[in-house]
Amino acid sequence: MYDAIVIGAGHAGSEAALALARLGKKTLVVTGNLNMIASMPCNPSIGGPAKGTLVREIDALGGEMGRNADRTALQMKMLNGSKGPAVRALRAQSDKVLYPQEMRKVLETEPGIELLEAYVRNLLVDNETVLGVRLEDGKEISSRIVVLTTGTYMNGAILVGDKKTPGGPDKQRPSLGLSDQLKALGIPTLRLKTGTPPRLKKASLDYSRMEMSPGDGFIHHFSFDPTYLRILDHEWPCYLIHTTKDTHRIIYDNLEKSSMYGGYVEGVGPRYCPSIEDKLVRFADKERHQLFIEPESQFLEEVYLQGFSTSMPHDIQDQMIRSLPGLENAVIAKYAYAIEYDAIDSTTLKPTLESKVIVNLYFAGQVNGTSGYEEAAAQGLMAGINASRKLDGADPFVLRRDEAYIGVLIDDLVTKGTREPYRMLTSRAEFRLLLRHDNADARLTEKGHGIGLVSESAYERYLDKMAKIGAEKERLAKIDIYPGEAVNKLFSKLGHPPLKGKTKLLDIFKRPEIGTKAMKELFPDEFTMSEEIYEQIEIDVKYEGYINKAIKETERFQKEEAILIPEDIDYDQVMNLANEARSKLKKIRPQSISQAARISGVNPADIQMLLIHLRLRKHPGSSS
């Protein structure tokens, strides 16, 4: 018998299996095609706004995605670099061929993991407890835990124009049978849709008509261990183009031929990553939409047309693509398509990602209604950690909304649910100034080490970094800079206002126009450590007031989180609850007052009634 079986080996399944195995659990990974482990059927990139912070958090907890992104990167770029630290985000163009190859190597060489190429027909369930899986050939395999990470494969269907064909991404077989069983077991499902743009032969494009979008050089990395970063001789550039009036005319003239507008789509598509025809309809006032030509792999002669997903018939796609600047003679290597699939109602999950309906059954990734590789990997890591801890009889590991984007993601899923593919956004995190790209290790490495996923060497490196930051901050706070002629001449030369009086070196960081680079130019003898050290110091100093205010807000939030709701509460006994609130509370069964307050349809008046009920329950006979 296995300790755990992971169904699926995408980004969620890979992280779940690695977490389980690294925590000492004998784990079987069952996937339909071993060559599709951690595949990238859509955008060949990792990171971006909010998503990049998820990857840093995965790494800080001991997960694999950040390391794999670093060792397979074609380009690295820090987005929103000129904006505040809360919205900065690292994004990597990944090698579509190398990324899954490298992740497969990691899984194959990890002690405790076995890989099996097969399809699961259904779960083995008895007395509302999962006991293993049954394969298509009838073979039964027993386990104490099952983690289901089927991605977009469950009842998957490919749509192009008026044609709908059963299938998963990249012409793979769909997963059939599981969805019907889940519904029969009392786990509701919903139909979702996503899509992918066309791939083009890169030699057929005229790059002179495009704007080059280069990377920053390999000066960034996702992993807090920089040794994983693969430094190439050159970064592979992206190119920016825009849709034209002709593009829009072709789409409008043929709108009813697309799967969505022709009425062939059942599922709900992603609001924040719409198809090109959906963009035109929803943003009819826009004269053009930006698109990016992105490299797929150093081993492929294809590029990815980012921002141009569509479900139009092939002949219409031909016209659409060739109406774009530089693509007039484009050779299409792979046409775009939409894909529909079944996902579960994520409000039927506990914050640990275990099912409330079936004991020891965990769900992670797009099957929970999310979109994106990063969201999937984060869930897979947390499902793997919690499954392992349940087997050990340890307390659940749940991150709060003020601790990590991972906490925001999972709380949104289990508290609010989703009716469309959920994408992690910076705006979803109310404590985003504290949940930054740069400080993910400070927030989570201690926790990852305590769990057992962060190695001793990685932990020692983290402690050394924190010690250096503290010591350097103290040192800079003691150094006085005087407004002499030489100093102010240098300030003026670099375009900065002169000093007017004696100033602590640390306080110069408070000037909005002076960052780490300028400080190194102004005081090269004083600033001799890595930019990573000074980046943390600069943010701490520049945003001290805002950070302190955010910390006070988290303290209030944590007090509400600490008011726990007993598992056996009978909401029918809570007086004066609105009917909608009562229904939602009974369905979601929040664990704290704070979580209850985040449920759509539960109002402040309902929370007050709930608090009164809890107080009376704790102290019978007391006055409300």
Q: Percent helix among the residues?
A: 25-40%
How many whole angstroms does the radius of gyration measure? 26 Å
Regions with pLDDT < 50 over 5+ consecutive residues? none
The CATH H-level superfamily of the largest domain is: FAD/NAD(P)-binding domain
Give the terminus-to-terminus CA distance.
54 Å
Q: Quickly give the CATH architecture of the largest domain.
A: 3-Layer(bba) Sandwich
**What is the number of independent domains?**
4
Number of helices: 20
Shape by Cα distribution: globular
Portion in beta strands: 15-25%
Average pLDDT score: 94
Report on this structure.
By secondary structure, this protein is α+β, with helices and mostly antiparallel strands. It has four domains: 2-194 and 340-450, FAD/NAD(P)-binding domain; 199-339, Elongation Factor Tu (Ef-tu), domain 3 (Beta Barrel), CATH 2.40.30; 456-546, tRNA uridine 5-carboxymethylaminomethyl modification enzyme MnmG/GidA (Arc Repressor Mutant, subunit A, Orthogonal Bundle); 563-618, DNA polymerase, domain 1. Strands 1, 2, 6, 7, 8, 9 and 20 form a seven-stranded mixed beta sheet that branches. Strand 7 (120-126) and strand 8 (129-135) form a beta hairpin. Helix 2 packs parallel to helix 9. It starts with a strand and ends in a 6-residue tail after the last helix.
